[in-house]
């Protein structure tokens, strides 16, 4: 289980919120651009540091201002898929997926086996030796997700995971993504501006406004709050 409580001074406001995600649960963060959604992911993964608060994952403290604990990003065992996917364009698909494992200095046979298994799960084995710069948006999404999952993370963070996928392929990719998340059984947080992503991927929705948690509940509950300006425009 992830338990997050953090305060962070941002340019226009103070982000101050708490949330939790249970094992196997997918939490979707929605809200206006600049509301603090991606900042939450960066605070959890360790890219940014809270001014105060506490972040725990299972029985491990990742950050605590009171106890002066701040585990570095590479030691948090969190899979973070960025909106741009952040793949290495000069590397092949297999090299991209293997990158994190090589950083952990695992034996090469173990790396090759894990990469081959993950490529097969993501149905991209035939792309192993292709440079990622030649891939479509949907293929890059699979590679980025494979790179995150091959590390067997304790938490998965996805920032606009389907934004670079062709509109015609998004429905199928959405189904595949939900299947992969369900299979891992780990907690997952998704940031999206897409209504279908929120409805089809989320077990819970959290609406963030200016760094504060405005609503938290089942998708139908949160999306039913039509008196809220963002929800009204989000639902259309």
Summary?
By secondary structure, the chain is an alpha/beta fold.
Polypeptide structure, described:
The chain has 236 residues and is of the alpha/beta class. 36% of the residues lie in helices and 25% in strands. The chain is built from eight helices and eleven strands. The chain has helices at 37-45, 93-103, 108-121, 137-149, 167-184, 195-201, 219-223, 229-235; strands spanning 2-9, 14-21, 26-30, 52-57, 60-64, 69-70, 78-81, 155-159, 188-191, 204-209, 212-217. Strands 7-8-9-3-10-11 form a six-stranded mixed beta sheet. A five-stranded antiparallel beta sheet has the order 2-1-4-5-6, with no helix packed on it. The longest helix is centred in the C-terminal third of the chain and has 18 residues, at 167-184. The two termini are 33 Å apart.
What are the SSEs and their pairings?
Elements: E1 2-9, E2 14-21, E3 26-30, H1 37-45, E4 52-57, E5 60-64, E6 69-70, E7 78-81, H2 93-103, H3 108-121, H4 137-149, E8 155-159, H5 167-184, E9 188-191, H6 195-201, E10 204-209, E11 212-217, H7 219-223, H8 229-235
Parallel strand pairs: 3-9, 3-10, 7-8, 8-9
Antiparallel strand pairs: 1-2, 1-4, 4-5, 5-6, 10-11
Which CATH architecture of the domain at 1-77 and 199-236? 3-Layer(aba) Sandwich
Q: What do we call the CATH homologous superfamily of the domain at 1-77 and 199-236?
A: P-loop containing nucleotide triphosphate hydrolases
Strand order of the largest sheet: 7-8-9-3-10-11
Structural classification: alpha/beta
What is the number of helical segments per DSSP (H or I, 4+ residues)?
A: 8
Question: What letter string, H or E per element, gives the SSE order?
Answer: EEEHEEEEHHHEHEHEEHH
Percentage of residues assigned to helices: 25-40%
Query: Mean pLDDT, rounded to whole units?
Result: 93
Question: What is the highest CATH level, the class of the domain at 1-77 and 199-236?
Answer: Alpha Beta
Named CATH topology of the domain at 1-77 and 199-236: Rossmann fold
Q: Could you tell me the strand content as a percent range?
A: 25-35%
Largest sheet: 6 strands, mixed
Shape: globular
* Total strands: 11
Termini, distance in Å?
A: 33 Å
| Weakly predicted, low-confidence segments | none
Nearest-angstrom radius of gyration? 18 Å
């Amino acid at each position: 289980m992830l338990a997050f409580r953090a305060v962070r001074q941002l340019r226009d406001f103070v982000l101050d919120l708490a949330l939790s995600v249970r094992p196997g649960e997918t939490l979707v963060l929605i809200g206006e651009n600049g509301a603090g959604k991606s900042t939450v992911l960066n605070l959890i993964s360790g890219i940014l540091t809270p001014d105060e608060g506490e972040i725990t994952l299972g029985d491990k403290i990742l950050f605590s201002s009171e106890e002066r604990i701040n585990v570095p990003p590479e030691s948090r065992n969190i899979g973070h898929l960025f909106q741009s996917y952040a793949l290495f364009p000069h590397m092949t698909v297999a090299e991209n997926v293997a990158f994190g494992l090589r950083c952990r200095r695992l034996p090469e046979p173990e790396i090759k086996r894990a990469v081959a298994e993950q490529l097969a799960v993501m149905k991209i084995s035939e792309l192993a030796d292709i440079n990622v710069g030649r891939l479509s948006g949907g293929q890059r999404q699979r590679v980025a997700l494979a790179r995150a999952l091959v590390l067997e993370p304790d938490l998965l963070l996805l920032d606009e995971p389907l934004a670079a996928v062709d509109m015609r392929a998004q429905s199928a990719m959405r189904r595949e993504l939900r299947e992969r998340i369900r299979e891992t059984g780990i907690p997952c947080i998704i940031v999206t501006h897409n209504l279908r992503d929120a409805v089809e991927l989320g077990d819970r929705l959290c609406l963030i406004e200016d760094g504060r948690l405005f609503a938290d509940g089942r998708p139908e509950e949160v999306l039913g709050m039509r008196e809220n300006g963002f929800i009204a425009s989000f639902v259309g």
